[in-house]
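User: I'm writing a short methods note and want a consistent example. For Chemotaxis protein CheW, I'll paste the sequence; you return only the structure tokens, no commentary, since I'll be parsing the reply automatically.
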Amino acid sequence: MMSGLTDLNLTHHDAENIDDCWNRIGIHGDKSCPLLAEHVHCRNCAVYSAAATRLLDRYSLQQERPEQTAAIDAGSDVVTRSLLMFRLGEEWLGLVTRCLVEVAPLQPIHSLPHQRSRALLGVANVRGALVACLSLVELLGLEASGPVTPGGRVMPRMLIVGAQGGPVVLPVDEVDGIHAIDQRLLDSASAAGPQASARFTRGVLPFKGRSLRWLDEEQLLSAVTRSLT
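Assistant:
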């Protein structure tokens, strides 16, 4: 988890190199910017769009200059693995927590002109830093479905994950929580293999009466990087 937090700090460091006027004199500041009367909201201003473009250019630059990362040694005596369980439409998925920075409440996502990919939804303001938002539905090749109404109160969330060029936001419909799964169950699901149409999936396993897709984090994060460059 610390590596992910470091990635988020790097995003804030990069934000310091951008005149984040929206936090000082714009909609999130004292609202003294003379352009607010014309644009109503900072996201409609060319300065904000230019800052978002610089953010996406940073992802491209990081991809061109990859850094060597240390492998995480899970150890031979590990018997469980922590997975974050979440829902997209009617489908439940699991992602290992080592690539997760945090789970946050859903924030407004501001679309950008001239989108670079179909998966790129836009950018969100995460504690003052612009973070790219991607559609997991598009990345995983899922069919868009209407809203699901499960029992109880359900709050959509944002998964902030650590990609190669920095953290990215992945909106999801519901988060069940983090669960320790028996490694033998994961090994069995991986050996059986996913369905041919299940993109970026290690296997399918039962969980709380559901069929849960265990996502391959390396393939998924690679697809995230490609969508930003």
